[in-house]
């Protein structure tokens, strides 16, 4: 399991997806199969590096922030705030409240149309830039060498930042290899401290590793107690790629917040269903980014690192696995067609 370093921590109501936003968070069930393991030295894969500027500007965790260490030595908070479906004043307020609560990882995306709001909150917080870890993502329509460089500059301008802590390819579609080459360059220039992907299945991650110089530092995918992604986690750990879970509460589907197993475990520890679920993620070494716009829930979701789930607790949670996404399959041709046709508002 990836080493954690302590330095002192409801979605669409229907299955129909009529617009872009409901597709952004979708993930697919992993097909468990033996994965090809290739010697990194034989491939000449670069595991770290980056420019001197990138190294000097790295995230410096404040007291009490628990982190994981990425494959290039950059530390990343193990718990953050997701901002999917939050825009404008709501997003700015929520991000500011999260930072004031103690969150240091903020996750955004070009397709969320909220980068400007996130940047405003970062500046208003008064927290030194190097104590915050900001992520944003490249959308499908911007995948490609030239388009990716242009999109990066646009995101950085909207955020009002001089560099990104993490830049992800949001979906495994379009010219991801051209985009990756542009991101490798930006990484070497010191303008991004780590680069990675989102919603990539293990075969796509492996293909990207084999045919490029800088391996992804992170793969952000759907993961929750109903879709635990155990095989994906094992693969990513073997390949030294950090797993990050979006939708850690399954967007409330399958009566998540009323789940009797999680409720019972929570009663033993004096914790809520949400807190049990987040502790399950962090004990597996998985970064989690719960989303909430309510201050009480923002605080609740942050206070999850002060207890430990027992082996018996973990065994009960393992029984909740369904083996499939609660959203849709990223490999479904019709889903690919719909996602590819979506464009962020600009």
Structural shape = globular
Fold-level CATH name: TIM Barrel
- Uncertain segments are 1-51
CATH superfamily: NADP-dependent oxidoreductase domain
Mean pLDDT over the residues: 86
Major sheet details: 8 strands, parallel
Describe this structure in words.
The chain is an alpha/beta fold and 346 residues long. It has one domain (67-340): NADP-dependent oxidoreductase domain (TIM Barrel, Alpha-Beta Barrel). It has 14 helices and eleven strands. The chain has helices at residues 21-24, 40-43, 52-56, 88-101, 115-125, 145-159, 176-188, 202-210, 230-238, 260-269, 273-283, 295-302, 311-318, 333-340, and strands at 4-6, 66-69, 75-77, 80-82, 105-107, 133-138, 166-169, 195-198, 218-222, 242-246, 287-288. The strands form two sheets. An eight-stranded parallel sheet has the order 4-5-6-7-8-9-10-11, with helices on one face. It has a three-stranded antiparallel sheet with strand order 1-2-3, with no helix packed on it. Helix 6 (145-159) packs across helix 7 (176-188).
Chain-wise SSE layout:
Elements: E1 4-6, H1 21-24, H2 40-43, H3 52-56, E2 66-69, E3 75-77, E4 80-82, H4 88-101, E5 105-107, H5 115-125, E6 133-138, H6 145-159, E7 166-169, H7 176-188, E8 195-198, H8 202-210, E9 218-222, H9 230-238, E10 242-246, H10 260-269, H11 273-283, E11 287-288, H12 295-302, H13 311-318, H14 333-340
Parallel strand pairs: 4-5, 5-6, 6-7, 7-8, 8-9, 9-10, 10-11
Antiparallel strand pairs: 1-2, 2-3
Helix pairs in contact: 4-5, 4-12, 5-6, 6-7, 10-11
């Amino acid at each position: 399991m990836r080493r954690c370093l302590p330095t002192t921590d409801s979605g669409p109501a229907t299955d129909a997806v009529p617009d872009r936003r409901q597709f952004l968070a979708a993930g697919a069930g992993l097909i468990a199969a033996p994965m090809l393991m290739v010697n990194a030295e034989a491939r000449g894969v670069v595991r770290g590096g980056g420019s001197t500027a990138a190294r000097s500007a790295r995230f410096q965790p404040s007291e009490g922030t628990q982190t994981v260490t990425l494959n290039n030595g950059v530390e990343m908070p193990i718990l953050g705030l997701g901002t999917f479906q939050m825009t404008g004043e709501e997003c700015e307020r929520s991000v500011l409240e999260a930072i004031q609560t103690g969150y240091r990882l903020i996750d955004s995306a070009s397709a969320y149309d909220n980068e400007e709001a996130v940047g405003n909150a970062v500046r208003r917080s008064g927290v030194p830039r190097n104590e915050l870890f900001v992520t944003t993502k490249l959308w499908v329509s911007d995948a490609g060498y030239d388009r990716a460089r242009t999109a990066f500059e646009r995101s950085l301008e909207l955020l009002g930042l001089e560099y990104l802590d993490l830049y992800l390819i949001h979906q495994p579609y379009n010219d991801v290899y051209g985009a990756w080459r542009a991101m490798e360059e930006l990484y070497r220039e010191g303008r991004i401290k780590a680069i990675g992907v989102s919603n990539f299945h293990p075969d796509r991650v492996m293909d990207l590793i084999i045919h490029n110089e800088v391996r992804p530092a992170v793969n952000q995918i759907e993961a929750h107690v109903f879709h635990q992604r155990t095989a994906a986690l094992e693969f990513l750990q073997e390949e030294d790629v950090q797993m990050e879970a979006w939708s850690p509460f399954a967007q409330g589907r399958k009566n998540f917040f009323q789940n009797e197993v999680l409720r019972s475990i929570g009663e033993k520890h004096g914790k809520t269903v949400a807190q049990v679920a987040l502790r399950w993620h962090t004990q597996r070494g998985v970064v989690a980014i719960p989303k909430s716009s309510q201050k009480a829930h923002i605080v609740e979701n942050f206070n999850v690192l002060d207890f430990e789930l027992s082996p018996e607790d973990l065994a009960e949670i393992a029984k909740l696995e369904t083996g499939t996404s609660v959203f849709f399959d990223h490999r479904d041709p019709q889903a690919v067609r719909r996602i590819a046709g979506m464009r962020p508002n600009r």
